[in-house]
Each structure stands twice: as structure tokens, then as C-alpha cells.
């Protein structure tokens, strides 16, 4: 039933999203005895503290208005235009021009009844505080990709300069999204796993060039069928996606034959997932241009970060989530970041995830994939984390400058070609050197059923930011797909506040 609701809901949004992200059209509803809301705006004459007049913008079937920060939402004076002879009601009270109304609710209803009383139009209105220029970009993005909820936070240096939620964290009960709502991070989880590894390094409990498998490996005795190829894999290879474990394979973390018990939707333990991958990849992969032995080239590997999260557990003696929370996040004052779960495990301040094109937003076993894709957190917490890893002593960093340099320096792959020695866009757990955006920054995105994410740390102009969504779309606009658009919009927002 839930999957059916998701499909119907997204189908409805896609239809509504086809409408332009513009103020209400004054020409709609001009037929005799119509019951249409023709215009909703808040003028400077009626609301002197607002500044220029602001108008409503339709976003996925709801009309949104952005007013300046600090505006008293309980005493806004709307200017409402309806069909000739019709009457408007704001949350049940008859609309009177020039009279203040309370728009502080999550959703405010405006009902329009035609002159004859035989027709009714119902409109849902949301007022939010913020910057209308930034909000216009986000609202357009939400319309283009039918995204129910978005969170954005932007930081200059170590100061958050803009932080806002858009749309709905939970559509079914009109829960408005905030920058403190928890979202799934997808592959941004890899940076959290990297933090765990670097913490153990700083504690002197591991070295990045230690072997992982085999008699001398950290995970000695946990797995069988370990070959000399596996024995040559180090922690550094896993962090830099150069282990070669996934080269030529379908992604084990997202292929049911690896991650599920046969014929079921029950996930296997992380150790079984790793063992199945080792069994399949017994030797280096040769693609005709390079032999993908460890360290030779960049080949993005989710399973590598599952191995890393098991290393964290073996070295620390704690389960992965406990070590992450107690040893890494709590010293930063981060207390509301977790490993996610299925829908029946949703936390009170966590979004619901809405899958598009008939998929299931809760199909991925986040606990088993914790190091690669399991984190849930908020954009506000993400900004705080970045202040502790920026090389700026305004907020004391949790890592030494040496460790930060290792994370943020492109890995030197030994092979030749595009993904060998020429590849300069990945360090240890972080991307860098984007060809178009985020000059000087370390960054990473994530995509998974029901979510799309991106964060950026410390551009050359000192800007950092994050944007995350509670749905994933598969269409495109002029800027490309949803991931392309996240890069464009976050880049625009960072430049706006620089």
C-alpha cells in the first residue's frame, strides 16, 4: 500500500511540476461563476517591514511565499484576488482586505467559494522566512525534479550564513522540512567512515599502509579464499578507491545476489557481503589498458568502505556506530547523527524518503552498508563537522595538518591513463579538483533510492555548504540530471554569499 501511495504521490507532483515556478496566473479562473485564487501577494503598503512586494510561487501544488527573516508570520496582511463575485476564506475566516491574518501554521488553507456558492477552490499556502533569491532557485529545482523536501546550509569561514528547509519532510502530515531534519547521506557516509579511520590513525592504532587481509592483515582470520592479490590491499587503497575489488563487477553493495540471501529481501551480514566479493574477485582485473591491481587506478568502490567500517570495529573493539558517535562526533558536539534504518526505524526528526519511477525508497540495508552509505544527519550538523576539518584554527581541528593534507591531496595512482596517474580528483575519502565548480574545495555527493546529496568544504573563497533531498528523480532539465543540478545550485548559492 505504501509503494502504491508513493507512486501516486510522485505522479501527482510530476504533473504539478510541469507548471512554471511563477506567481499565480491572474488569467486563470475567469470563467463565469469560477472559484479561483487569482493572486496572492504581500505588499509593502500593507506590510511596511517586508520591503518590496512578495508574491506566491507554486511548488509541487503548494503556494510558497518567502518573507525576510524576523517577519512576524502571525500578523501578515495578504492581498488576495479571486474570481469575480467569489469570496475568499483564510483558515476558515472571511478574508477582509487590509486585515492581518495568521500565516504561522505549517500549511494555511485558502478556500474560494464562487458567487453562486456551487463551486469551491481550495489552495494550500506556506509562508517561510529566508532569502527570496536563493529560495527561488531551490523552488525551481524542486519543481523540475518533483522533490518533496530539501535542506540547505551555507557557511562562510566558520559562520553559517544561511540555513533553511524547503517543502515537506513528511508529506502525509505536512511536516515542514528544516535544516535540522535528518536525511540519508548515501555516499557522503564515506567521509564519516574516513573520519573514523583517521581518528584511529591519530590515536596510533593503525597505519594507512597496513595490510587488510591475510596473515599480516588487520582482518586476519575473518575471511577465507584470501589470495596474494587480496593480501596486497592496504587501508590507503580502500580510502582512495584503488583496491580494484569492484573492477569489472556489478556493484556488490547494490546487487541482490551479493547483498541478500538467495530469493529473499533479507540482507546478509557485512562479513558475508565482503566474503562474496572476495570469492568473486580472486585476482587483479585486466581491462586491456591497465591491470587493476591495488594502487594502479581509481575505480569507485562501495564495498571498499564496508571493509573499512569492519576495520574500525576490529581495531576499536566497538561497533561501528558507537565508535563514530563516541570517538569522532561527540568531541565536535555532534549528537544527532546516526546509522539509518528501514521505514519502521525512522527517527522522529527524520525525513520520509519518496522514490520515483516505481522504485522502493527503503530497499537498501543501511546497517550492513554503514561505512559506504548508512549515515543520516542534517545540513546544520554537516556545517559544524566541516569547521573541525578545515585547517583553520578558529575552531580547533580534530586532525593534525598532516592528516588533513593526506585526506585532501589527490592520490598518486601508479597506472597510466585517465583513471591512473592522470586522475587527480580523489584523495582519501574525498573528491577534489572539480573541473567547473568549488575551486580549492574538498567535496562529495551521494545518490541512493530516495535521496540525493552534496556537500562542499572550504572553497578558495572560504565558502562551504550542503544541499540534500528526500527523493531521487530520473529526469533531466537544461542543466542535466538531479546530480548535475545539485552541483549547479550549490555553486550558485555559495557564490551568492561569498
Which keywords apply here?
498 residues, alpha+beta, elongated, disordered N terminus
Blueprint of the fold:
Elements (H helix, E strand, L loop, with lengths): L1 H16 L19 E6 L11 E2 L1 E3 L2 E6 L11 E4 L4 E4 L2 E2 L13 E6 L6 E10 L2 H14 L3 E8 L2 E12 L4 E2 L6 E2 L4 H14 L25 H4 L3 H5 L16 H4 L10 H11 L4 E2 L4 E2 L9 H15 L3 H10 L8 E2 L14 E2 L14 H4 L1 E3 L1 H9 L13 H8 L22 E2 L9 E7 L2 E7 L5 E7 L1 E2 L9 H16 L1
Helix pairs in contact: 1-2, 2-13, 3-8, 3-9, 7-8
Question: What distance separates the N and C termini?
Answer: 46 Å
Radius of gyration: 25 Å
The tally of strands reads 23
Oligomeric assembly: single chain
Uncertain regions spanning at least 5 consecutive residues? 1-23
| Mean pLDDT over the full residue set | 93
Class per helix and strand makeup: alpha+beta
Q: Please state how the strands of the largest beta sheet are arranged side by side.
A: 12-11-10-22-21-20-19
> What's the main sheet like?
7 strands, antiparallel
**DSSP strand (E) fraction?**
15-25%
Tally of DSSP helical segments: 13
Helix content class: 25-40%
Shape descriptor: elongated
Please characterize this protein's 3D structure:
It is a single chain. The protein is α+β, with helices and mostly antiparallel strands and 498 residues long. It is built from 13 helices and 23 strands. It has a seven-stranded antiparallel sheet, sandwiched between helices. Helix 2 packs antiparallel against helix 13 and helix 3 runs parallel beside helix 8. The chain is elongated and about 85 Å long.
Amino acid at each position: 500500500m505504501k509503494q502504491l501511495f508513493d507512486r501516486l504521490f510522485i505522479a501527482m507532483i510530476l504533473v504539478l511540476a510541469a507548471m512554471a515556478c511563477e506567481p499565480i496566473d491572474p488569467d486563470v479562473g475567469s470563467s463565469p461563476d469560477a472559484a479561483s485564487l487569482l493572486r496572492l501577494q504581500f505588499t509593502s503598503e500593507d506590510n511596511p517591514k517586508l520591503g518590496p512586494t512578495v508574491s506566491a510561487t507554486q511548488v509541487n501544488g503548494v503556494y510558497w511565499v518567502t518573507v525576510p527573516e524576523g517577519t512576524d508570520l502571525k500578523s501578515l496582511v495578504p492581498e488576495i484576488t479571486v474570481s469575480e463575485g467569489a469570496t475568499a476564506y483564510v483558515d476558515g475566516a472571511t478574508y477582509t482586505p487590509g486585515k492581518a491574518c495568521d500565516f504561522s501554521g505549517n500549511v494555511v488553507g485558502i478556500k474560494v467559494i464562487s458567487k453562486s456558492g456551487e463551486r469551491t477552490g481550495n489552495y494550500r499556502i506556506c509562508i517561510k522566512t529566508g532569502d527570496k533569491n536563493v529560495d527561488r532557485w531551490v523552488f525551481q529545482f524542486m519543481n523540475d525534479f518533483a522533490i518533496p523536501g530539501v535542506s540547505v546550509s551555507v557557511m562562510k569561514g566558520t559562520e553559517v550564513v544561511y540555513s533553511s528547509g524547503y517543502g515537506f519532510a513528511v508529506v502525509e502530515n505536512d511536516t515542514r522540512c528544516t535544516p535540522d531534519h535528518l536525511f540519508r547521506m548515501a555516499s557522503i557516509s564515506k567521509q564519516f567512515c574516513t573520519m573514523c579511520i583517521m581518528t584511529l590513525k591519530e590515536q596510533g592504532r593503525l597505519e594507512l599502509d597496513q595490510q587488510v587481509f591475510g596473515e599480516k592483515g588487520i582482518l586476519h582470520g575473518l575471511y577465507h579464499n584470501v589470495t596474494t592479490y587480496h593480501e596486497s590491499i592496504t587501508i590507503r587503497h580502500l580510502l582512495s578507491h584503488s583496491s580494484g575489488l569492484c573492477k569489472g563487477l556489478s556493484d556488490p553493495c547494490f546487487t541482490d545476489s551479493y547483498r541478500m540471501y538467495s530469493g529473499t529481501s533479507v540482507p546478509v551480514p557485512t562479513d558475508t557481503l565482503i566474503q562474496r566479493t572476495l570469492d568473486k574477485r580472486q585476482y587483479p582485473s585486466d581491462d586491456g589498458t591497465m591491470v587493476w591491481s591495488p594502487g594502479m587506478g581509481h575505480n569507485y568502490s562501495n564495498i571498499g568502505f564496508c571493509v573499512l567500517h569492519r576495520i574500525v570495529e576490529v581495531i576499536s573493539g566497538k561497533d561501528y556506530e558507537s565508535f563514530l558517535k563516541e570517538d569522532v562526533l561527540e568531541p565536535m558536539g555532534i549528537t544527532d547523527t546516526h546509522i539509518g534504518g528501514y521505514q519502521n526505524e525512522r527517527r522522529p526528526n527524520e525525513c520520509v524518503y519518496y522514490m520515483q519511477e516505481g522504485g522502493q525508497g527503503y530497499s537498501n540495508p543501511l546497517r550492513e552498508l554503514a561505512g559506504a552509505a548508512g549515515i543520516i544527519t542534517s545540513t546544520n550538523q554537516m556545517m559544524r563537522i566541516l569547521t573541525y576539518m578545515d585547517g583553520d584554527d578558529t575552531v580547533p581541528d580534530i586532525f593534525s595538518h598532516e592528516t588533513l593534507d593526506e585526506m585532501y591531496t589527490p592520490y598518486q595512482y601508479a597506472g597510466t591513463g585517465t583513471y591512473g596517474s592522470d586522475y587527480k580528483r580523489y584523495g582519501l575519502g574525498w573528491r577534489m579538483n572539480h573541473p567547473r565548480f568549488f575551486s580549492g574545495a574538498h567535496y562529495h555527493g551521494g545518490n541512493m533510492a530516495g535521496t540525493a546529496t552534496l556537500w562542499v568544504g572550504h572553497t578558495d573563497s572560504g565558502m562551504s555548504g550542503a544541499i540534500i533531498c528526500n527523493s531521487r528523480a530520473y529526469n533531466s532539465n537544461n542543466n542535466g540530471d538531479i546530480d548535475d543540478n545539485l552541483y549547479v545550485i550549490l555553486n550558485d548559492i555559495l557564490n551568492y554569499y561569498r
